[in-house]
Specification:
The complex is a heterodimer of chains A (417) and B (304).
Chain A: E1 3-8, H1 9-20, E2 24-27, H2 35-45, E3 52-55, H3 59-71, E4 76-77, E5 80-81, H4 82-87, H5 89-97, E6 103-108, H6 122-126, E7 133-136, H7 140-155, E8 163-168, E9 176-181, H8 184-191, H9 218-247, E10 254-257, E11 264-267, H10 271-285, E12 290-295, E13 297-299, H11 303-310, E14 315-320, H12 333-344, E15 351-355, H13 365-381, E16 388-390, H14 402-408, H15 411-414
Parallel strand pairs in A: 2-3, 2-4, 5-6, 6-8, 7-8, 11-12, 11-14, 14-15, 15-16
Antiparallel strand pairs in A: 1-9, 7-13, 10-12
Chain B: E1 4-12, H1 17-30, E2 34-39, E3 49-57, E4 72-75, E5 95-99, H2 104-110, E6 117-121, H3 123-131, H4 137-148, H5 153-165, H6 170-186, E7 188-190, E8 238-242, H7 252-256, E9 262-265, E10 268-272, H8 282-286, E11 292-296, H9 297-303
Parallel strand pairs in B: 1-4, 4-5, 5-6
Antiparallel strand pairs in B: 1-3, 2-3, 6-7, 8-11, 9-10
Classes of the chains: A alpha/beta (417), B alpha/beta (304).
């Protein structure tokens, strides 16, 4: 039997890593590293896990060591955050292109400058095109569950891609929550033994890894990577299915909340989805038909599935905890992907962007209610006047409050359940 | 001239192929042309076959793709004459221009019985005599002025003065002008049989062409050690020659050779792996009894 434990998000992930017992974990031990590696290093020091723990001189080296270990046939993991992820940049692409199933929990935190240690998604969003699978977790439980599943997804014979598992910095990483930790043996049975198809250390069958690859082959190998990313969607669902069968917790590409009859929907990642659930309940009590969609898998982006889940609503709000500077309207990456997906799948409704919470700025249910109010107005008018709102930024026009909206909202439209 | 002339250069790393493509473009610009010069970049390895391109046009050039159907193919190194891709796409009325002292029939034979326009210039000899260095580009420019009529000797003179006078003394400028003049005068033209209306020369592409889904993932090479099939010995411009009576079998050459091209058995030096020796000269440099000397490849080839 498993057991309930009071764990911080980082501890929950460190537990997952202990149970996975990777062959190699390489990490850089000081800021911006998080409690994940600290806790895991303690497990190693206490002899609770036999992983070879490499303390390297930078995050760049941490991922490089994982690349080497994975190429040698080891199950390799590291963890990072913020500037650490930024420093890994070039190796991110190498791990993905060499098709090495490295699993890396990422604690989402802001990027300098100005110097900031708090939550936003700028770090992992910047890595969205690096060829890694990206899974976002709402809370410590999801971070734990996703880390376990990430190993299977990464090593899936149809995939063989590295996976990042995200949790929100501080909000999830440093908050203690009730987490169901599965039994070690059950986890071991679920993740299985890594069976690398090709390894550097197989002397019977010598191979060349990471060779030069010019215009005659490079593009073909990139196309190969596309195929792996395409197949990942199915593999993720297959792994989630097995996870649900063994542990009872069910995961998909995304999760919806009171979306079935919603007039307007909010799309938001990670911990804020939990906060938004409270806002949805508050407004539902007023009779507003609002709903929520929380993407779990951001890469590969489940464009078709997302749009089908949202096809019945009249307006969509997309909340982004990052800015794609210089992109359309200086909006956020999730919004841009949602707009593209809507266009691609013929959904022609207003889709507004709400950039929020940068550098750890709080986001509360009442602010999210403001966003829903804005969305109700947009749905009513059928058009957007402000495509991107920077929520709660001083000097920006504030969002309407539900009370303001209720004053001139026609009675009929708010009469709901 | 036609609206645009396209030129493909063939040579070996270290011979100034890229510079040649650029020099010609600059000279043509001086004469009022729109220009483009660019190399086919790869790992820059001394002696490896490389290509560069020059485009000259009466109007601005918006094309940014490799030259596929050249009007001129210029070969800086006659050891490349056996390269089957040398004539690829050459227009039926185009010119093959070779830096060579060989008679035209011999060159034609080496280029698979080529019948079209041919021009030959012993640019290396002129360069060695006049510039005292193996810089065949400058005499070739003179030959191109004569052959193409794209620019005059006066244009070239002005260009060379302009570019060299700032950096070098009058002696260097004069020597370069002399090299150009001799290239102009000494180019040997062998018209051959141009056959207008014929299609550009097609060369079957020799490379592997696996579709993406048949490739091992991640750029993995399953048959490790297949570099042995890559005959880098063709890159040589110099080759090591050993005087066996001086060799002490110390095997310094074997230790230092970056290409594992020293043949050794039972602790004895046996010779060089000519299929892979690139002629870098490290073995000769490190040989304690100086038993290895480097000899120009073309001399060895000519002697064979």
């Amino acid at each position: 039997m498993g057991r309930w434990m009071a764990l911080e998000g980082t501890e929950a992930v460190a537990y997952a890593m202990k149970q996975i017992a990777p062959d190699v974990v390489a990490a850089y031990p000081i800021t911006p590293q998080t409690g994940i590696v600290q806790t895991f290093a303690q497990f190693v020091a206490d002899g609770e896990v036999s992983t070879e723990f490499l303390q390297v001189e930078s995050e760049h080296s941490a991922l490089s060591a994982c690349v080497g270990a994975a190429a040698a046939g080891a199950r390799a993991m590291t963890a990072t955050s913020s500037q650490g992820l930024a420093l890994m940049w070039e190796i991110l692409y190498i791990a993905a292109a060499m098709r090495l199933p490295v699993v890396m929990p990422v604690v989402n935190r802001a990027l300098s400058a100005p110097i900031n240690i708090h939550c936003d998604h700028s770090d992992s969003m910047g890595a969205r095109d690096a060829g890694w699978i990206q899974i976002y977790s709402e809370n410590a439980q999801e971070a734990y569950d996703n880390t376990l599943q990430a190993v299977r997804i990464a090593e899936h014979p149809q995939v063989r891609l590295p996976v990042m598992v995200m949790m929100d910095g501080f909000i999830t990483s440093h908050a203690v929550e009730r987490v169901w930790i599965e039994e070690d043996d059950a986890v071991r049975a679920f993740v299985g033994t890594y069976q690398p198809a090709c390894t550097l250390l197989n002397l019977e069958r010598p191979l060349t890894f990471g060779a030069l690859d010019f215009y005659d082959y490079y593009f073909e190998h990139k196309r190969h990577q596309v195929e792996a990313m395409r197949r990942a969607k199915e593999a993720i669902l297959e792994v989630a299915e097995d996870f649900a069968r063994r542990f009872g917790r069910r995961y998909g590409l995304f999760e919806t909340y009171r979306l079935e009859d919603a007039e307007v929907a909010l799309v938001v990642l990670s911990s804020t989805a939990g906060t938004a659930r409270v806002a949805v309940d508050n407004l539902r009590r007023l009779g507003w038909r609002v709903g929520l969609l929380k993407p779990r898998v951001y890469r590969p982006f489940p464009d078709h599935e997302l749009i089908e889940a949202l096809r019945h609503v009249r307006a969509i709000g997309v909340m982004d905890r990052a800015i794609a500077f210089g992109a359309m309207e200086n909006g956020g990456p999730l919004w841009l992907d949602m707009l593209a997906a809507a266009y691609r799948h013929g959904l022609h409704i207003p889709i507004a962007n709400y950039v929020f919470g940068l550098g750890g700025r709080d986001i509360t249910p009442s602010e999210i209610e403001g966003i829903f109010t804005d969305l109700m107005q947009i749905a009513e008018r059928g058009m957007i006047t402000r495509p991107v709102t920077y929520v709660g930024v001083r000097g920006e026009a504030p969002l309407p409050t539900p009370a303001e909206w209720a004053l001139w909202l026609p009675e009929a439209t708010i009469a709901g359940d | 001239m036609q609206e645009m002339i396209e030129i493909r250069w063939h040579g070996r790393g270290g011979q100034g192929v890229v510079t040649a493509a650029r020099l010609l473009a600059e000279a043509a610009m001086e004469a009022g042309y729109f220009i483009q010069a660019f190399p086919d970049y790869g790992p820059e390895r001394s002696g490896a076959p490389i290509r560069a391109y020059t485009r000259l046009s009466r109007s601005p050039i918006s094309l940014h793709s490799p030259v596929k159907a050249p009007d001129l193919v210029i070969v800086l190194d006659e050891t490349l004459l056996g390269d089957p891709s040398l004539l690829e796409g050459l227009k039926p009325d185009g010119w093959l221009i070779v830096n060579s002292a060989l008679p035209p029939e011999f060159v034609r034979r080496r280029v698979g019985g080529y019948k079209g326009h041919l021009a030959l210039l012993d640019a290396t000899r002129i360069a060695l005599e006049v510039l005292r260095r193996n810089l065949p580009n400058t005499p070739l420019l003179g030959a191109l002025a004569r052959l193409t009529g794209l620019f005059s000797l006066e244009d070239l003179t002005r260009h060379i003065r302009h570019h060299l006078a700032a950096k070098f003394g009058e002696d260097v400028v004069r020597a370069n002008l002399e090299a150009v003049r001799r290239g102009f005068e000494e180019v040997r033209i062998d018209p051959g049989q141009a056959s207008p209306g014929e299609r550009p020369i097609e060369v079957p592409s020799g490379g592997m062409a696996l579709p993406w889904f048949e490739l091992p993932r991640g750029g993995l090479i399953l048959d490790a050690g297949n570099a042995i099939a890559y005959r880098t010995g063709d890159w040589r411009t110099f080759r090591p020659v050993v005087e066996m009576e001086k060799c002490t079998h110390c095997l310094y050459c074997w230790l230092y050779c970056p290409d594992d091209a020293i043949r050794v058995a039972g602790g004895q030096f046996l010779g060089f792996d000519e299929a892979h020796c690139k002629g870098c000269g490290i073995c000769a440099a490190v040989c304690p009894p100086k038993a290895i000397i480097m000899v120009e490849e073309s001399r060895v080839v000519a002697a064979v």
